[in-house]
Amino acid sequence: MFGSLIYAARRSVRNMRQSPFLCGAAVGTVAVSLSILALFAILALNVQELTRHWSEEIQVTVYMDVPPQEEALGEWIEKIEGYPEVEKVSYVSRGEAFDRFRERLSEDADLLEGLEPDILPASLGIGLKENFRNRAGAETLIEKLRENPSFSDFRYGQEWLERFETFADMLQMIVTVLGGFLLFATLFIVSNTIKLTLYARREELEVMALVGGTPLFIKTPFLLEGALQGTLGGLMALAGAFVFFELFLLEGLAALPFFSGLYGIIFLPGSHQLLLVLSGTTLGLFGSFISLRKFVRI
Amino acid sequence: MFGSLIYAARRSVRNMRQSPFLCGAAVGTVAVSLSILALFAILALNVQELTRHWSEEIQVTVYMDVPPQEEALGEWIEKIEGYPEVEKVSYVSRGEAFDRFRERLSEDADLLEGLEPDILPASLGIGLKENFRNRAGAETLIEKLRENPSFSDFRYGQEWLERFETFADMLQMIVTVLGGFLLFATLFIVSNTIKLTLYARREELEVMALVGGTPLFIKTPFLLEGALQGTLGGLMALAGAFVFFELFLLEGLAALPFFSGLYGIIFLPGSHQLLLVLSGTTLGLFGSFISLRKFVRI
Amino acid sequence: MIQIYNVFKSYQKDSAALEGISVKIPKGDFVYITGPSGAGKSTLLKLLYGAEKPNRGQILVNGQNITRMRSARIPILRRCLGIVFQDFKLLTRRTVFENVSFPLEIQGRKRYEISKKVYQALKTVGLEHKLNRRPLELSGGEQQRVAIARALVVEPLVLIADEPTGNLDPQVTLEIMELFKGANARGSTVLIATHDREMIRRFPRRVISLDGGRLVGDRTPETFSVPRG
Amino acid sequence: MIQIYNVFKSYQKDSAALEGISVKIPKGDFVYITGPSGAGKSTLLKLLYGAEKPNRGQILVNGQNITRMRSARIPILRRCLGIVFQDFKLLTRRTVFENVSFPLEIQGRKRYEISKKVYQALKTVGLEHKLNRRPLELSGGEQQRVAIARALVVEPLVLIADEPTGNLDPQVTLEIMELFKGANARGSTVLIATHDREMIRRFPRRVISLDGGRLVGDRTPETFSVPRG
Ligand SMILES: Nc1ncnc2c1ncn2[C@@H]1O[C@H](COP(=O)(O)OP(=O)(O)OP(=O)(O)O)[C@@H](O)[C@H]1O
Ligand SMILES: Nc1ncnc2c1ncn2[C@@H]1O[C@H](COP(=O)(O)OP(=O)(O)OP(=O)(O)O)[C@@H](O)[C@H]1O
Ligand SMILES: [Mg+2]
Ligand SMILES: [Mg+2]
After folding, report:
1. For residue A111, what pLDDT is reported?
2. DSSP secondary structure code for residue A129 in this structure
3. Fewer CB within 10 Å, N- or C-terminus of chain A?
């Protein structure tokens, strides 16, 4: 069994050398179509990262009519930090609130001149854990916070959150739908190409059967060949995507203050890289498998 | 000449009927790869539309310390509207400004209670024409506005504009780079597939040459065939993209208040549709042309 | 060895390629199949190696009814056959050596054994110096000899040769016939479809004649008379 | 019509397929080319229709030096040749009718003229009832006859036939030879590469013999003697 696999491998390497054009066509197609997928994945990943980053701004703000005693404040914060939804809690005193408001008005800040800093209440800013950065999460938390009578008012930037959710949903949809289509396209194109390369060799397949080759004997080298070509294509796609990333995306996007300020854009993580190469292997293998079923009928 | 073209067309139709598998593979590949391009174009177009929409918010605001006489105001507005950069001018009185400010503070509006509405100055909001919605455009305009001594202060949302420009640049870059790559990928995949379909028929080409066919005589039907398959593929891509658009994008995105509120998302305009189909034709034609040069050597 | 009972075969509705053929070929026999062009010789042979299925009738090869055989068993059957196809059916991308070694590889023989046998087989057809050529770099007769070497190399139970000397000169034809006789002497049953009356005259054996898909003659050398041509 | 001067051709460095061949074939001649398998017969014919280029020497066909011809003119030359290839070279996706009509289409003949001629040509080779078949649905001999019909249909200046009867029975061979004689009588120069001594015996004509790429004989019927075989 093992011996015959090695033998099949030798035959498949020989096959590839004997028809470099067909082999190149298969590898090239896998490489190019997987590159598209890889670039799309990089983009999707970075957009996801961006929304994750933005979602950090989601927080529940708790206003206190009366500025709290330092002791009680410590207790409250500790208790709130114990809630499963909560990532971190920060206290904003009246003075700080006033300063921030001034900042927020920016160019119109001079309007506040002459006003006392105590017009704004003290507050607690409660950052949510990633899974709870949505309306449901914020409201569950507020339900719990209501127990404390010193907390007079709760806000969680409803408007912003709604927009954010909409935006995230939209991105999710585009990524899913487009990704799905790209996946289908890759499948179609690669299997089509492999079918064509085998079609060009169907006489060879026929002769092998006539001379007594069992389907397994005939197919194994071609399956191996498909898998090898797919893997090669996958590796080339990975390399190509990386070069593309380094040359265009990284340089280009890093030059934009918008991005570099927020976070570094990222390449595919290791697991995705492996997945990419393995999809090449799988595509090559299954593309060959399906086509061979069509052309090798004893 | 015309007669022989008709004859070649008949031969190419016969060719296609004689090898439905090869023909289907070529048409399918063109259809799928152009669909990717079409979907990308739709996306790019809509994002462009979105940024165009956003850019409408860019305007230069002129503050006047002393509220102007009605007569002078009319004159000024007329003059400003005469500038080539300006799309429209709108006057905001002190009262209106105060109301808007209150709106803008939204939840914090109660802070303004007890303040006089005349703390904010009257102003002119000057909308820019599309080409001038950038820093250079705004500053040129301000230069001109400075001539009027009654205008005390000029603002154009520098921060917003900077961000907007960055964002637009980034989108532009992604669209260009990704679009370029997709174009290359389509070119590669389609020409590769056509080369494979012709490779499968290279013996036929060889025999035709041996029996006395001139290169032109041999190639013409195959070129026509390529063009026809390309056109068919292009039409299918268009139809596919349209169905996809109707089924997923339109429904999906329209359900999101974010989008439906702003503007309807759009499909490819007629000129782009034509371009898509014609690229199919061109791809098919040139793919065949290049491959034939390889396989038809007398 | 081979038994054919009342076999009908038609590729298309209107015309039959074989009509009611019944033949018995005992083990170790040497049989010519002749008949004009289109008589059904190749079709009969194709039925024997399972490339076509008869519409009616039964065919037994080596005790196995191939009309009822599961298609997965057909390759196993073909391994004990040596076939020279009328159009050679060589693997054009493989070298001469690889073509001839292919049936041995299928049988899973050892590499050194394969090398030896292939070289020997190519030598007997006079092509040992062209083993690294591809088939399309050979003359028509050389291709035919490669096909013959491929059929002989497995020392087949049944040797089926369809017009094996159509592209060979008389001298080489004689040598090839000697090879076929040798294989026959070593136990192979031999079936040769041929038009070559000269060959039948020089090596008289049983002759099965077809015409228009019907069996029109089955003569053993004893009753053999010099053909008109 | 055909003049060959000191032609050398080798496909590979070490071995030559043709060595110093010089032959003149006047217009209207009928010539056999014989020689053992691999002697260079097909190679010589390939040079004549421009499928291969000689390494040295000059070849004139119909007054044109094809060794110096621009490759774009080769198809023009081929149009006045009728070629029967040793491996037929039929268009497997086309029907028999389409295969035979192809050279006429190249010549830009009218449709009704093509139909008539093709039908006539197929009738002379006995295949008029199979014109809608594809080549692979025909027997070996039938394919060969389609190839012959395709070569004859253009009423060629030079008819080049490479082993045209290798797959034909003696009866059909006779008929085909009559066709070749007819074409010759109507003015075609005929070149036939063949191993078939019977054919040469029955239709004695000039015989050019090759062996190992060298010209070893050129006999006209007057000096013709019955071959040893
Ligand atoms: N695949 C096919 N499809 C349809 N008809 C076929 C097919 N193969 C053969 N035939 C027809 O069946 C008949 C017998 O063909 P077969 O090949 O058996 O003849 P043959 O005796 O081998 O002739 P030849 O001496 O010319 O090789 C012929 O009329 C041929 O046209
Ligand atoms: N394409 C090629 N590449 C390399 N060598 C070739 C090629 N074609 C022919 N040869 C060699 O050239 C020599 C002459 O071949 P050619 O086909 O002319 O022989 P032939 O006389 O037609 O033989 P046959 O009667 O077997 O058809 C042979 O030794 C053959 O191996
Ligand atoms: Mg036959
Ligand atoms: Mg030859």
Report:
1. 62
2. P
3. N
Residue nearest atom 27 in ligand 2 by C-alpha distance: C140
Is C135 among the domain residues? yes
C69/C85 same-domain check:
no
State residue D228's pLDDT score: 44
B262 touching A (Cβ < 8 Å)? no
Q: Calculate how far, in angstroms, residue C38's C-alpha sits from the geometric centre of ligand 1.
A: 5
pLDDT surpassing 80 at residue B168: no
Domain check: are D69 and D83 in the same one?
no
C62 and C37 assigned to the same domain: yes
Is residue A109 within 8 angstroms of chain B, CB to CB? no
At C128, list the tokens.
């040992």
Residues in chain D within 8 Å Cβ distance of B13:
none
Nearest CA to D165 among D155, D176, D157? D176
**C134 located within any domain:** yes
How far does B78 lie from chain A, in Å, by closest CA?
28
Residues C65 and C116 in one domain: no
Number of domains in chain C: 2
pLDDT along chain A (298 residues), means of 10: 79 88 95 93 83 78 82 86 86 82 66 68 85 83 84 78 75 84 93 94 92 92 95 96 84 58 76 95 95 84
pLDDT in tens, D142-186: 999 999 999 999 999 999 999 999 999 999 999 999 999 999 999
**Å from CA of C40 to ligand 1 middle:** 6
Whether residue C204 lies inside any domain: the answer is no
| Collapsed DSSP state (helix, strand, coil) of residue D209 | strand
Q: What is the tens place of the pLDDT at every residue in B97-107?
A: 878 777 766 66
List every span in chain A annotated with CATH 3.30.70.3040. Answer: 59-156
A1 in contact with chain C, both atoms CB, cutoff 8 A: no
| B12 pLDDT higher than 60 | yes
Answer whether A276's CB lies under 8 Å from A38's CB.
Answer: yes
pLDDT exceeds cutoff 80 at D224: no
For residue D129, the enclosing domain spans 79-181
Cα(D38) to centroid(ligand 4), Å: 7
Asked if pLDDT for residue C223 goes beyond 60, the answer is no
Q: Which helix (H) or strand (E) holds D131?
A: none
**Please, which residues have CB within 8 angstroms of residue D140's CB and are 6 or more apart in sequence?**
C37, C42, C86, C87, C162, C163, C166, D167
Q: Which of C51, C83, C106 has its CB closest to that of A213? A: C106
Q: What are phi and psi of C213, to 5 degrees?
A: 85, 0
Return the minimum-mean-pLDDT range out of A3-12, D106-115, D217-226.
D217-226
Token output for B61: 């605001």
Residue B241 class from Cβ within 10 Å (0-12 exposed, 13-18 middle, 19+ buried)?
Answer: buried
Chains in contact with B, where contact means 3 or more Cβ–Cβ distances below 8 Å, are: A, D
Q: Going by CA atoms, what residue is nearest to atom 25 of ligand 2? A: D37
Residue B200: predicted pLDDT:
92
Measure the CA–CA gap between B48 and B172, rounded to whole angstroms: 8
CATH class name, domain B59-156: alpha beta
**Same-domain status, D145 and D161:** yes
Specify whether D93 is located in the same domain as D6. no
Whether D75 and B207 lie within 8 Å, measured CB to CB: no
Give the residue, by CA position, lying nearest to ligand 2 atom 6: C137
Last residue in a domain, options D139, D166, D181: D181
Mutate to test the interface with C, among A11, A204, A211 (most CBs of C within 10 A): A211
Place of tokens 């083990």: C27
Please classify residue C18 by burial: count the beta carbons closer than 10 Å to its beta carbon, then call 0-12 exposed, 13-18 middle and 19+ buried: buried
B204:D93 CB<8 A: yes
Q: How far is the CA of D18 from the centre of ligand 2 (A)?
A: 10
Cβ-Cβ contacts under 8 Å between B and D: the total is 54
